[in-house]
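1st attempt posting a full record on here, be nice pls
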Amino acid sequence: MQIHKKLINSDYYTAVILFFFIFSIYLLCPIVTSFDSKYYIPLTKSIIYEGNFDLDEYVSFENDKDYRITNNNGHYYSYFPYANSILAIPLVFFLDFILRISSVDIEPIILQVGESVGINPDIILKVIDNRLYDLLYEKTIASIVSALCVILFYFIARKYLNNNYAILISLIFAFATSLWSVASRGFWMHGPSILFLELAFLGMLYAKEKPHLSIYVGIPLSIAYIIRPTNAISLVLFSLYMLYCNRDSYKRIGKYCILTFIPLFLFIILNLSIYNAILPPYFLAERITNFSPVIFEALIGNVFSPARGLLIFSPFFIFSIYGVYLKIKTKSIDIFDIVVLMTIFFHWIAISMYPHWWAGHSYGPRFFLDVNPLLLYFIIPVLSKISSMKPSSKKIWTFVLLVLVGISVIIHLKGAVIFGVWDWNGTPLNVDENPWRIWDFHDIQFLR
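the predicted structure (as tokens):
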């Protein structure tokens, strides 16, 4: 018992060190991509200080035709899900508090630095007034959330791997995937989405040993859906799995359903108060196109295109396929694994049904980001096999894995520090108006 307790404490110490290491690197990277997320922090402040969900005090000075804004009953609201803004309340409140009690006024410092490089002070003041603090908040919060995603995955990996390999696969998640180049660069939906999906995933793993914990798994699943509607797939499939696992206990099934519905009920109440509808515009199924020739291009493009391909930007994910093969070969694949595979597959189908399947102005396979932890889950058996190989075979497999991981790290590093790779979306032609550029091998995004 004492040894087990020491191991648990060791995991927590490792997690804390990992968090601050990853958070520091994320925070130091210069790129901030406040695109879809532009109004998340203003909405959080509106909730805290105005007590409402409208953006009237912000949009009145902006273009009311902004794609991120919807006009309803004479008020301006965020078109994108407001779950991020709600989740950010404690962090924004804390950061506001720190700024209020801080004796350091950063405005003169910024003015001095700007003037030293020839930037007009009036322009600097305008930027500071309108956007600077929101961008600082957004980058800080995105870095915190993304680092927490890695920590949760570390605990998932520790259920199967020793500490060294768990740290390795966690660092792969942190720096060789779109978590670094996209999720940590702005307060996109993907960071919180992954966080709550991982909470549910971890809950399902613990519930295998302690079935009474299964009643709580639906809470993070329903919150993940409220954050990002494509998580309806995870909500449905994992809920069916949990109901199957608890088929011998109607009491647990009842509690699971009630607890799962509570966040959804609050979501519906809020939607009715704002839109007089059960679902907001962003969640409507009409946003996904019907099956057409475009979906086949999207299915291939989301995996292999030079600008959005999962295996192009993170080629090490090829080992996920090998991991599935190993589970089948060793007959260790179970119902849980099948549900995880189905979730990945239907997510791939869903993101390929969007008319703008390339995720607009983005970097790499952004739409695949939410299921990256599920893909990494199938690399765990590969690492387990490598750890038990003969030294000669182990060196070869480790070398191949690290080469692919190294390529992935370089690609995602560029997304975190090089502005040019993001400029690719608009120059020389807007990718949304010229989607053929997704397949342009003469102007590959990560080579900018």
